[in-house]
Amino acid sequence: MDGADVGSFTHSVTRIATVSIALGIAVMLVSFSILQGFREQIQGKIFSFGAHIQLSHYDNANSLEVAPLNEPDLLRRLRPYPQVLSVQPFARKTAIIKTTDEVLGVVLKGINEKHGLNSMRQNLVAGKFITFADSAASSDIVISRKVADKLRLKVGSEALFYFIQQPPRIRKFRVSGIYQTGLDEFDEVYVLGDLRQVQELNAWPDSLVGGLEVRLRSFKQLPKTFDRFYEELPYEVRVEKVTDQYAQLFDWLQLLNRNVIIFLVLIIFVATFNMVATIFIMILERTKMIGILKALGASDNQVREMFFFRGLSITLRGLVIGNVIALGFCAVQYYFHLIPLDPENYYMDRVPIAWDTTMLLVLNAATLLASALSVLVPTYLIARIKGGRATITDPHFTPQVQRCAADYLQ
Q: Any idea which of 77-86, 298-307, 326-335 has the lowest mean pLDDT?
């Protein structure tokens, strides 16, 4: 094989290594962005109906309708906790909705104007949120798409709610909005209404509520804050973590995390293996050149350094190309929603994308580090290559000679 053939073959191998690294980092970044998007979307849907921690009256029967709590007293007890971002009251009441043709059992969840409208707005697919009046309880309700379809209701429709209590009560409500989370835990059960409606039905004063939903400044603060609440709040207050209330959903997210970690490790392994093979081939093809360089006075470390930086340049080029591909794909999906999903199976109607700069940098750094370490492995083969007798008496491997050798590696 002459010099031209060697250069052409090495160039092809270098291209393959660059492409493999580019595809590897692109797949990693896209996979993580989609996974993070799924996690944020599903957690956002859960938190739009609840919060990180729920406080309610302890009840052995584990019923949805429990004894009330004194809201001002609990709010006073929560003030010393700086990790608490917001607190919103709620109350639940089981009911039967009756229309002309259909009957359906639901849970009316009473909320007030403190409810996080921004988090709930992402779930609205028709109409608007509840309009809270200053004096009287609002008759507006927000129902799910599933409930609307079953009862053949639409925005502006009216429905009768039958509350099983002594004495039985009937209320007429107007559908102001329709939501869809894709999560059966909410869509098949909950109807949102004015908290004052539930208070009136239960004959509670304004100070009594069914419970409080506590949002924290960070999801990471949940375990420690839960432990403090459990130890410091009155014994009759039941403290529940959102991860316990919806354990199935959070276990599913955790399983996704494990699968993606395994996937990322395999991709990094393949990329580094390609780099090892590429440098091995380059060294084997440049055996004669390495011998000449050693004859000119080059040390093993000097020759190894040339191949190391050549491998590093291939890695950096692949990383740049891969990042451009991944970020371009994510941007197109994020703004134009090209890839749809079936909400019945995936809880959302399109592939979600989340932007996490920290993880983007971590994945790039991990790939660069793994590739750099893998490049070092084949360079130790250089020590086995012996140089011939020197034809140049200069014992020093001059920078000019080193640059010419590096250019030959290109």
A: 298-307
